[in-house]
Amino acid sequence: MTAVDVSALAKHLFDANRARSLVPRLTDDHADLTLEQGYEIQLALRDLHLAEGARLAGAKLGLTSRAKQAQMGQTAPVHGFLTDAMRLDAGEPLAVASLGQARVEPEIAFILRRDLSGVRVSATEVLATTEAVCPALEILDSRYPDYKFTLPEVVADNTSAGRFVLGSMLTAPAGFDLRLVGCVFERNGALAGTAAGAASLGHPAAAVAALVRELAPRGEGLSAGAVVMSGGLTEAVPVSAGDVVTARFDRLGTVELACL
After folding, report:
1. Smallest Cα–Cα separation from 146: which of 189, 211, 101, 188?
2. Distance between CA atoms of 47 and 84, rounded to whole angstroms?
3. Which residue among 5, 29, 38, 115 is buried most deeply as judged by most CB within 10 Å?
4. How many Cβ atoms sit within 10 Å of the Cβ of residue 177?
């Protein structure tokens, strides 16, 4: 196996993020890069963000659709971290120039009321631990040109995390089925996609439970107050200055993002 300098690759991706530059795929030099090594690089990348003064805000999921998992040869979602520096306030515009290649997708976000960890966590436990759910937009930003990467590479790049914004309407998840929550996603008033909550691993809470189970072997979990982005419900769309994207959710409300 090709020797992998985890710290050096994490710094490479961190510096590229700061410079808003794109980099060659890691597998150009490390053809046998493994998923485990990808997560090691991601953890080192997280340490660099925290050392710079960022605080952990929560976690995000990727590959939460069964079709995408099959395409990538995976049976579980992948995950990354969120920091407070990535969060946009409701109504705050996105400065597109602050990212390399921005794309946006609609998601259902969970806000936890207490800590959650363990290898047997279920969707039911996730819902019981959730303070509220809300409409959300994730702004992706891959370091690799045209979003072309292998699974270990995208994991190393923190699953293309860029920014995120939460809608202002918070809803307790009890009393309705998140699988059936419909979403209409628009860019500049034109339909960009439609979906239901079930697009995320059959149930958004099941996606969050899968995340918790994946974190458990390394002794980690989710903390009270954490924001969890439960996975994209439609295809992500590229955005440019002047664009406005809107996600309208049944029962959960609307979230909008203007791009400058």
Report:
1. 101
2. 14
3. 38
4. 12
